[in-house]
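Re: that backbone. Tokens:
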């Protein structure tokens, strides 16, 4: 079987790794317009899935999230953990708007610890918060995970090719199975009008003393990463595709984060980054279809539209997409 995976971000590379595990004899190539500049590189990578995240059904969504957590947790326990950038992290979520803001019905029963914050713990941060939770979860640093994934793929013969596609049909007839992991790029490749961008801006600062993450509502977050680098965020601007840094937004982010954790006032700025999250109205798209180019046709498995939860849920949707691919391939063989 010849399989083309389109997309070089966390969803595409994780799907390729999953495919490699389950179809060892397949000839696989990952196509991407750029492997080094994807929205995945901007993400803080904390395993926290918001209530708005949705697959086609609640059961499937829970499977995706559970499979994703187990995938990263297995890496965390392995000798590859430091190379892949996967570790355990604990922290707090505080809110005034609603007690639901500090809960997560998707992961409360999945992570090892998820409890209410104590009265003493409310004193750890600035502000007068009404609601709080403490949890232990996972963190995946994509600046480590993505190069690690590419190395793993190349070691076992998967090709990585830089190529900009205007249509998925360009891959026919050479590739009879295509997995589309193009994120926001699927809007034009698939003419998917449900796909919109959510612009996000973050600041990376040097604060090696920060070991715990903090959320103040959901628009303010402080997430320690590797080597003393801490992500300060954030912003969510629907339908905005402005990739230029906004100094006023940076000032607002820094102000909110410093009010939450005053010690960050002495943190030096390393860089500021902008990314466009691929948000799909209704639900993430992981489904199959047939496409045609002249007399030739191919099976396409779509796997995109993860919004701000691509790093979190890529392994789960990848496993589901590969299973779909196997079923469609068997079905097509049976019809011959």
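Recovered sequence:
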């Amino acid at each position: 079987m010849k399989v083309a995976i389109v997309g070089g971000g966390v969803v595409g590379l994780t799907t390729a790794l999953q495919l490699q595990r389950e179809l060892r004899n397949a000839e696989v190539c990952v196509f991407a317009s750029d492997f080094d500049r994807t929205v995945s590189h901007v993400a803080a990578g904390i395993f926290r899935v918001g209530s708005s995240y949705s697959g086609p059904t609640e059961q499937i969504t829970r499977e995706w999230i559970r499979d994703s957590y187990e995938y990263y947790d297995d890496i965390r326990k392995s000798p590859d953990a430091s190379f892949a950038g996967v570790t355990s992290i604990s922290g707090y979520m505080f809110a005034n708007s609603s007690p639901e803001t500090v809960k997560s019905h998707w992961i409360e029963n999945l992570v090892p610890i998820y409890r209410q914050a104590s009265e003493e713990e409310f004193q750890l941060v600035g502000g007068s918060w009404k609601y709080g939770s403490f949890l232990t979860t996972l963190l995946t640093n994509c600046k480590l995970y993505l190069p690690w994934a590419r190395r793993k793929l190349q070691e076992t013969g998967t090709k990585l090719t830089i190529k900009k596609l205007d249509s998925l049909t360009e891959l026919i007839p050479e590739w009879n199975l295509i997995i589309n992991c193009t994120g926001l790029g699927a809007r034009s490749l698939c003419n998917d009008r449900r796909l919109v961008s959510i612009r996000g801006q973050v600041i990376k600062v040097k604060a090696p003393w920060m070991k715990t993450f903090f959320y103040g509502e959901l628009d303010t977050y402080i997430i320690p990463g590797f080597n003393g680098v801490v992500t300060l965020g954030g912003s969510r601007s629907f339908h905005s595709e402005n990739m230029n840094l906004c100094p006023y937004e940076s000032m607002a982010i820094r102000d909110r984060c410093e009010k939450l954790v005053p010690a960050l006032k002495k943190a030096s700025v390393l860089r500021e980054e902008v990314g466009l999250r691929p948000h799909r109205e209704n639900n993430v798209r992981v489904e199959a279809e047939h496409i045609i180019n002249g007399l030739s046709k191919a099976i396409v498995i779509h796997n995109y539209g993860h919004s701000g939860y691509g790093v979190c849920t890529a392994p789960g949707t990848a496993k589901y997409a590969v299973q779909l691919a196997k079923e469609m391939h068997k079905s097509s063989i049976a019809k011959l």
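DSSP finds seven helices and 15 strands in the chain. The CA atoms of residues 149 and 155 lie 10 Å apart.
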